[in-house]
Write a structure and sequence with these properties.
Layout (H helix, E strand, L loop, with lengths): L1 E7 L4 H17 L1 E7 L3 H6 L6 H4 L1 H18 L14 H7 L7 H14 L8 H10 L5 H9 L3 H12 L7 E4 L2 E4 L4 H10 L1
Parallel strand pairs: 1-2
Antiparallel strand pairs: 1-3, 3-4
Helix pairs in contact: 1-4, 1-6, 1-10, 5-8, 6-7
Length: about 200
């Protein structure tokens, strides 16, 4: 079975769409998904951005919210505009680094995305993260480790790995070193993984 790396920041609304659709599409294509949460903020900073490009460029931001309404309706995905955008995804990401990469990691990731983009809850808070862990069948040990970790060595390593793959946005899909950026490129990435 071929592998597809799914790189995302929990604060990316288009990554939310990918998280909700990737597993069935990958199963149909015979491709295994490797979930790779990471922090996009440091990469944006290197590009000279101090905020999401959807906030820095108002026309792009207006388009984002309209497009998300259309896409979530088309895909049958629950959607509520977050109270704050982008929300801080650091705690959710640090917690994810302490979860084994089996089926519980995708379940946790989907719960975090739904909290932020369907339930209008703040994934920056420990209570929300603890509930997302419970929804994935996990106790709060990954959260406790993330809180105790302080500096976030694991998340820094993941950002470095994203840089090595030339990732500059989310969601991104990597197949045998080849980058596909954007939710609309999921089909092409799956096709490439299937061919390989």
């Amino acid at each position: 079975m071929a592998d597809l790396e799914f790189w995302f920041d929990f604060a990316s609304p288009y990554a939310y769409l990918a998280a909700e659709t990737i597993e069935p599409a990958a199963a149909e294509a015979g491709v295994r998904v490797i979930w790779k949460p990471f922090l996009l903020g440091p990469i944006f900073s290197e590009q000279g951005w101090t905020d999401s490009p959807f906030n820095l460029y108002p026309a792009r931001g207006r388009y984002l919210w309209l497009d998300l309404q259309r896409e979530t309706r088309r895909l049958g995905i629950a959607w509520r505009r977050p109270a704050r955008f982008p929300f801080n995804s650091t705690l959710a990401t640090k917690t994810a680094t302490w979860i084994d990469t089996g089926f519980r990691l995708p379940a946790y990731c989907r719960a975090v995305f739904r909290a932020g983009f369907a339930e209008r809850r703040d994934p920056a808070t420990p209570t929300v993260i603890e509930e997302c862990l419970r929804q994935a069948g996990l106790d709060r040990a990954p959260l406790d480790r993330a809180l105790a970790e302080g500096g976030g060595e694991r998340t820094r390593a993941d950002v470095a790995a994203a840089r090595q793959r030339d990732i500059f946005g989310a969601p991104s899909f990597v197949v045998n070193g080849e980058l596909f950026w954007g939710n609309e490129r999921l089909g092409a990435a799956l096709e490439r993984a299937w061919v390989d």
